[in-house]
Amino acid sequence: MQLRDALNDYKRHEGHDTRFPGERRSTTGLFSGFGGRLVHIERDGSLRDFGYPLTGRSGVDRSRLGLRVDGEIYWFDADDTVSQTYHDSTALVVTERETPFGALTQYDLTIDDAHVTHVELGEGSEADVELVAYMGFAPNAQDTRIGQLRHKDAVELYHMTEHDFVGSATDFSDLHGQVPIRFAEVLDNTTVDLPRPVSEDRYEEDRLSGDLVAFFLFESGRTSLVTLLTDKGTTTRETALDRLDELAAEYGDVAALRQTAEAETLDLPDDAPHADAVAADIRVLRLLSAETGLRIAGPDFDPYYAHSGGYGYTWFRDDAEISLFVNEVSDYAGLGLDAWTDRSARAYLAAQQSDGTWPHRVWPRDGTLAPGWANGRLEAGDAVDYQADQTGSVVTFLASVLDDLDGDLCDDVVAALDAALDGLDDTLAADGRPVACQNAWENMNGRFSHTTATFLGAYAAVADADLPAETTMHAKEQADRIYEAVDDLWVDDRGIYALRECETGELDLRYDSASLALVAAHRFYARVGNVDDKRLDRLVSHVEETVDNLWYDPDENDVRGLVRYEGDSWRQRGQGHEKVWTVSTAWGAHAAASMTGLLRQKGDKRAESFAMITDDLLSLVLPDGPLCMETGYLPEQVFDDGTPDSATPLGWPHALRLATVALTDELGIDVSAQAPTLAD
Q1: In what helix (H) or strand (E) does residue 285 lie, and over which residues does it extend?
Q2: Of residues 508 and 197, which shows the higher confidence score?
């Protein structure tokens, strides 16, 4: 998204109740792409690349599709769309629409660094029509100083190193370029609709712009549009043009697209629990992944940080949890994702800092440091602006999967864990809790229950791993210290563990969904130590009270679930109340399931009440649940009226859902998508 587009969107949506102006949204439409390139297909058929963090190539920045009939252009509209779905469990997007000229079906599939849009007219449609595509490219993330080269049956758009190509199975019937939004239009109060009519004979417009309007003839009622993103350092022009021709020829029919899409799809075991949810979760996590195995948190809807700090980066906190959950589910359900575990482990080793810790966030395509605000251990200062839970999460993953790794990788992980323990030790205070740092939500400093939970889980995982006795003994001692210190955060009046100890030494008494991580941490600890009855009682109370008091069921519609934390004002727009978060709701379900398992190990009858809480919360994020969109995606947040907001899909809740589905199946908890609400 270029600045001119962001400003145009700002003018269009300033003052909107649920839209933040200046953002590029993915809350409607579907994504395709398992090879790093990530293409969004909106319900109106328009395309946009979101894969820059994954590949370093920007590609299509804006587009529109339509038909030209008797010289008049009809642009597709979302209202024309009858349905938009994935073909089976693949990443092939199928969009069916009704136009004034007859029915039409659009098929979209991203294949490595190429994207194919195949369009077929329905029976009885107008015969004399052309497909028209307006596409604005941003090679090297530029919206100016772009050139075009016209080849026999393709167009090449370039800035410096990125060269993008457009071709078709049926060649161009007409072609011209356009200039982007002009300065005067940027400053004007009215919005601009692109593309414009053919320009005013500006001779340079056809060659010095990333915007292209192309027309394609239908042959036997079908045509295909192909785009290819390349880097001139790795792909020559001749190679790119040859590949473009091959793609156009190979994918001139639907059968070839389906065959390729199905070959890329993970086969699920016949007895996989909630197979539709598992398939959707795996697909989302693949969509968000770079070749390194690192993932973006979600499609970056806010590249100018207008209303957030951006989402197109890898955070080690959620990425390591995703990796751990995928490994656990793969082992339990037989998904065969060992290669994912190896790839993640290698990526984490490459990103580890010299002090054994991990930084705030990195670019997933190569693991290099990304822009951030929590790199306190990389710069001068007191290091409070450091998110210690990220290091704790990576340590938990690496220690947990050590037995699954072979050869040099296993040896490298052992060395990395040794260094990581030094990093954890350095940020563990004398009283047995982590020092003051930033929290999981990245908006406070203090000594948090969530950070404490990640340290407890990390040390316990190391203590339980196949490591030298000196290492495991030290980790066990540290885990014991943290276990005892957890009670420093206990709030007796509320029956919960506090959100944090503030810098003043006072406890922040608010309910916080991140603190639910204490339950999973205690399950790790139970493998190497004893969770006593007093602690068990406090964990029971903590989960019950936190879930009850973060529960929100607005009157507007079926939306209900857990808010992030008490008093959360972020991205409320005009709502005036905390928004429901899918991460928090899924976290609550996972914590309740973990509590069920912990209690059953003790023979405690209270386990069954937590099985019911698991059912209540997990059902909300399952397909057909009120927090899961028709696309199968889980957005980060939802407004009271049901409007999804922020990063969509967000990888973290999908991984939490995946893990909780497997855990409930393992524990024999029966979950339906129509479970009673907690309010009942």
Answers
A1: helix 275-287
A2: 508
Closest Cα partner for 162 from 57, 287, 280, 258? 57
Q: What is the spatial distance between Cα 58 and Cα 139, in angstroms, rounded to a whole number? A: 6
- pLDDT, tens digit (0-9, with 9 covering 90-100), for 348-375: 999 999 999 999 999 999 999 999 999 9
Contact predicate 517/486, CB 8 Å: no
One-letter amino acid for residue 414 of the chain: V
- The average pLDDT across 649-661 equals 98
Instruction: State the DSSP code for 383.
Output: S
Please tell me the distance from the alpha carbon of residue 35 to that of residue 240, in angstroms, as a whole number. Answer: 17
Contact 454, 389 (CB under 8 A): yes
Any idea how long the chain is? Answer: 680
Cβ proximity of 35 and 111 under 8 Å: yes
| Residue 24, CA distances (Å) to 2, 60, 71, 306, 446 in order | 10, 13, 31, 11, 33
**Quick check: helix, strand or coil at residue 591?**
helix
C-alpha to C-alpha distance for 207 and 157, rounded to whole angstroms: 9
In this structure, what token pair is assigned to residue 216? 């394609």
pLDDT for res 200? 55
Task: Supply the pTM of this predicted model.
Answer: 0.96
32 membership: H or E segment, kind and range: strand 30-32
The letter for the amino acid at 296 is I
What are the tens digits of pLDDT across the range 381-404?
888 999 999 999 999 999 999 999
Distances (CA, A) of 523 to 134, 155, 444: 54, 58, 27
The amino acid that residue 133 corresponds to is: A
For residue 451, the cross-strand partners are none
Q: How far is CA 257 from CA 118, 252, 450, in A?
A: 9, 9, 45
173, amino acid identity? S
Query: Which residues have a Cβ under 8 Å from the Cβ of 507 and sit 6 or more positions away?
Result: 489, 491, 498, 500, 501
Q: Give the whole-angstrom CA distance, residue 481 versus residue 502.
A: 21
How far does Cα 459 stand from its chain's mean position?
Answer: 28
* CA–CA distances in Å: residue 425 to residues 379, 430, 441: 19, 10, 23
Closest CA to 519 of 472, 579, 456, 461: 456
Q: Write the pLDDT tens digit of every residue in 266-288.
A: 889 888 999 999 999 999 999 99
What is the pLDDT at residue 183? 84
| Per-position b or e across 359-368, b if 16+ CB within 10 A of its CB | bbbbbbbebe
| pLDDT band per the 50, 70, 90 thresholds, residue 203 | low
Amino acid identity of residue 657, one-letter, is: R
Residue 294 tokens, joined? 């690192």
Cα 172 from chain centroid (whole Å): 36
